[in-house]
Design a protein that fits this description.
The chain is mainly alpha-helical and about 475 residues long. Helices cover about 85% and strands about 0% of the residues.
Amino acid sequence: MEEMLPQENPMGTAKISGLVLKTGLPLMISLLINSLYNFVDSVFVARISEDALTALSLAAPIQIIMSAMGLGIAVGLNAVISRALGERNRKRVEETASAALVLAFLAWVLVVILEAAVMKPYFRWQSGGAGTIMDYGIPYLRICMLGSLGMMGQWVFDRFVMASGKSSLFLFTLSAASITNLVLDPILIFGYFGLPAMGTAGAALATVIGQWVGCFAGYFINRRWNREIPIHFTIKADTGCMAAILKVGIPSTFVQVITSVLAIYVNSVLMAITPTAVAVYGACVKIQGLVTVGVNGMGSGLIPIVAYNYGAKKSERIYQSCRWAMFYSVMLYSVFFLIMEIVPEEVLLLFDASEEMLAIGVVALRIMAVSYLLSNVCLIFSSAFQGLGMGVQSMLLTLSRQVILPVLLIAAVSHLGELSFIWWAFVLAEAFVIPMGMTLWKKESRKALKLLTVKGGESWELV
């Protein structure tokens, strides 16, 4: 007989309105810190030159692919281990934790292979052979990729504390990584305290060192304060647990990889018009990471809540948590929305924007702000699907709004040479997918919970 966890954690008992905040706010703050140091990276690099900022914009799609591997493992881990905790299956919890660590190492090996195979040809193609941009971009991306094992480990250790309902501990992990990066960024980029000025390579090194600090901090925090999830390093992970993690996580990884293809495509379209537009798009991506921390934090916090209560057969709590996550995310974003609409020039000047960059960027930022607002709806639905173990449904929703529709719309207007049409394509994509997301969530969530009701022998009123 499997050993049972001694008691139900707050995921199944706490008041939903407070639980969503308690779980989501630490993640939101941690994402804010993470986005800030990515944002600051670009702000510092922009002080080198506009070509350096363009190089980071071109590196971003490959970084998305790299992060997607860690994110996929984290998403799958979060859903599988939270459900095991809800079922109070300790053996499953332990096996899932070990499987996630093995998968994180294998993901890093794959990133190293990717770096050796495609990194230089990619930059030569995307930069159009521009030597200055390549000189800035290649060292930056090489360091980020080869040093990414720390990032993979941090993804896993962070999700351990999230699944246990101890999201506040996550702040210590990411704060350690972020503060390290923020301190080292100007020192390594510009060469303070007698160190050589390393430029974009210094920005990459500061990021990697910060990730490793976060990884070690995550390991220590879990061993010291999160005994609910035992940590055992092994090369003989349970294949069933690995498969369960990948079943939920691979769709998320696939979506992010395909999203990087969109970024590559958009950069190619913009580069044909003007390289400055690539720098603007890169700045908008960094700004997006900062201003959408509310919905991303609430969405990440929603996954373990939904997964736990799905395992515990508590449907009403699932629906309530989705409603509260949606409400909180929109309210938190509204402040950033007003800033981008009222003073976009001030935001872009943080990137040392030239007159040409301001002329393009002000229009772009105001339009893109609307797309970020609309994205709140389907981002919450995607997180809820992941919590129910419906990785495919989450993938379909995200692919539609982030890849399929934007590509089709941009392809339709790109030949016109009007940049504003390209920015509006992102808004239309988000708007068109909202009805699809609402219909898909209503249908699939009711189907899953009805099936679980039959298996559990209980009768629930589905909302």
